[in-house]
Amino acid sequence: MDIEILVKVTSRAWSLKVLALMHEGVPGRQAPLLAASGASRTTFVHSLCHLEDLCLLERNPGHGHPPRPEFRLTPAGQRLAPIAHQIETAVRDDTGAILLRKMWTVPLLAVANRPKVFSELKRELNPITDRALSKSLRELNNQNWIERSVNVELHPPRPYYQVVNEGAQISHAIGLPG
User: Fold this and answer.
1) Which of 21, 82, 116, 153 lies 20 to 30 A from 88 at CA?
2) Quick one: pLDDT at residue 47?
């Protein structure tokens, strides 16, 4: 999977969840998807429209009603939905599910598949800001999805970040080359 697509998809909170639910066979109508996700209606609709704009979902012609359309996965969405499902099933608790909906969590886990310093992570996740990256790293470290280690043999000492535990499972599901 391309990191740019991953950043675009995760920029809306419920996009991965929608793809995962459709992969599981939840009907592509708003009511069943909304009920299965537990999202608020407004943010959920924004995620559906976002996925449609990214050409991962399309309106099913001849089905649904204009205010309540039925959606189906496009070929690109069909390739991404199993990955979204693997990401969603790797998370075991509510705190992790909330963290997974944040914009930079999944892309950061994808690129931290081997030890990297802050500047490497920032370069790979362009256009992330320093503040967003440091906040995301702190949250992922607190969740025990990223491990921070410091190489004290270098001068000055350099911290390295790498996925661990559930973070490693999510990173493996995405499958970006190291």
Assistant:
1) 116
2) 94
We find that the CATH architecture of domain 105-174 is: Orthogonal Bundle (1.10)
Over 80: is that where the pLDDT of 178 sits? no
Question: For residue 6, which of 130, 170, 140, 160 has the smallest C-alpha distance?
Answer: 170
Task: Look up the pTM and report it.
Answer: 0.91
CB 55 within 8 A of CB 61: no
Task: For residue 23, count other CB atoms closer than 10 A to its CB.
Answer: 19
User: CATH second-level architecture of 3-90?
Assistant: Orthogonal Bundle (1.10)
pLDDT tens digits along 49-84: 999 999 999 988 877 677 778 899 999 999 999 999
